[in-house]
Amino acid sequence: MNCAERIEKVFAGELVDSVPFAMKGWRVPHDDAEAQLLRDGMCVIDSAGVYSSTSPNVRHESESHAEGETTYTRTTVHTPKGSVSSVHSRVPSPKVEATTWRVEYPFKTPDDYAAIEFMMCDREYTPNYDGFLAAQERSEGRAFFKTGAPGSPLHTIMYTLMGLDAFAAEWAERRDRVVALHDAILENERQTYTIIAESPAWVVQSGGNYSPEVLGKERLVEFVMPHWEELGDALHARGKLLGSHLDANNALWADEVAASPLDWIEAFTPAPDSDMTLSEAREKWPGKTLFINFPSSVHLRDADAIEDETRRLLRESAPGDRFIIGITENVPENRWRESFAAILRTANEFGRLPIG
Q1: How far apart, in whole angstroms, are the C-alpha atoms of residue 117 and residue 106?
Q2: What are the pLDDT digits (tens) for 129-185?
Q3: Is 23 helix (H, G, I), strand (E, B) or coil?
Q4: DSSP 8-state code for residue 150
Q5: How big is the CA angle at 340 (ends 337 and 346), to the nearest 5 degrees?
Q6: In which band, very low, low, confident or very high, does the pLDDT at 356 lie, cut at 50, 70 and 90?
Q7: What is the per-residue pLDDT across 2-50, written as a single tens digit (0 to 9) for each?
Q8: Cα separations in angstroms, 76 against 122, 185, 233
Q9: Pairing of the two strands 203-208 and 241-245
Q10: Helices (H), 127-277
């Protein structure tokens, strides 16, 4: 049974030979240690898109400059309703993931609403199933492929268009305008639902990274859950699975997540790095597949402690169905070789299913 077959069976609720240890595809380091991990049974869960988008009435231009080791790029978007610009910084990093930081947001004043709304609603979407199928074929079963769907537009407004300070001010002073922008983005992104539902991808992730300390339960219920429900209806009608990346504290809205149409949860991070244990998540969310993030803080401990934590997670996952131990966040460059090997070794030895 190859990686793709094993992960597919886990999402289907079937018991495989042992609890998989899997990395998100773009986090896999490429060296001899990685090759050995793959030979020893580490899986890969990768992602490939199933649609492309164009904005026929919008023009982008970018310019970059360096300050020391940091590169700053300003992107200006020109629309018939005006222009907006944003700035990202990029710092060289030895990590697998190259991180960029948004240091200036497109939204500066209420005068920018018209241009931003035009920019977001000018997007037109086209199916691109060949790219997904080609990625699957190239992997030759070494990776399981999921695809992505738009997350909540409110989250896009908060973190991509405005930033939290501006969002807080606009939410207090011009909430109706924020909600109107949300509704306009949602209407545009609905075009992707049928494309994704009719695609060859079976497992779909819709956004995530929702922080209860910022989003709050009220906004989750009012804006995120209806989005999950509408998208979930479209996907479930075609036999697809809907998930979201919930890597923050989840106790505040655990009941809402339980009642949601989410079939699986990516990056759930158990205590000690969040406010829910794996046992609590399994009890609250029966029937939902958990692709967890192995607690990041534990990677800093020695191999014995990492093995102990892995065994604890395996016990709490009993009987071990619908459960994947994953790496969905960065791990220090000087720790992953020992840490990943310890997790995989323990999962192979103590994660035989069913776990009693």
Answers
A1: 11
A2: 999 999 999 999 999 999 999 999 999 999 999 999 999 999 999 999 999 999 999
A3: strand
A4: -
A5: 135
A6: confident
A7: 999 999 999 999 999 999 999 987 666 577 888 899 999 999 999 999 9
A8: 16, 20, 37
A9: parallel
A10: 129-139, 153-156, 164-173, 175-189, 191-197, 212-219, 225-236, 254-259
* Residue 124: other Cβ atoms inside 10 A: 12
Q: How many CB atoms lie within 10 A of CB 282?
A: 17
Dig out the tokens for 346 from the structure: 């323990």
Phi, psi of 301 (to 5 degrees): -85, 175
- Provide the residue ranges of all domains of the chain, joining segments of one domain with +: 3-54+123-350, 56-104
What percentage of the chain reaches a pLDDT higher than 70?
97
229 contacts: CB under 8 Å, gap ≥ 6:
260, 261
Instruction: Give the rounded distance of the alpha carbon of 183 from its chain centre.
Output: 22
The 3-state DSSP composition of the chain as helix, strand, coil percent (nearest 5) reads: 45, 25, 30
The residue whose two tokens read 């655990």 is: 254
Place of tokens 């790095």: 273
Tens of pLDDT along 60-118?
Answer: 999 999 999 899 999 999 999 999 999 999 877 655 556 788 999 999 999 999 999 99
pLDDT for the residue 95: 54
Integer Cα distance of 87 and 18 in angstroms: 46
User: Which helix (DSSP H) or strand (DSSP E) does residue 315 occupy?
Assistant: helix 303-316
From residue 293, how far is each of 21, 154, 268, 310 by CA, in Å?
A: 10, 25, 6, 12
pTM: 0.95
CA distance 19 to 70: 41
Tokens representing 189 are 């992104």
Distance CA 272, CA 247 (A): 13
DSSP for 255-268, please give it: HHHHHSS--EEE--
Q: Which CATH number fits domain 3-54+123-350: 3.40.50.1000, 3.40.50.2300, 2.70.70.10, 3.20.20.210?
A: 3.20.20.210
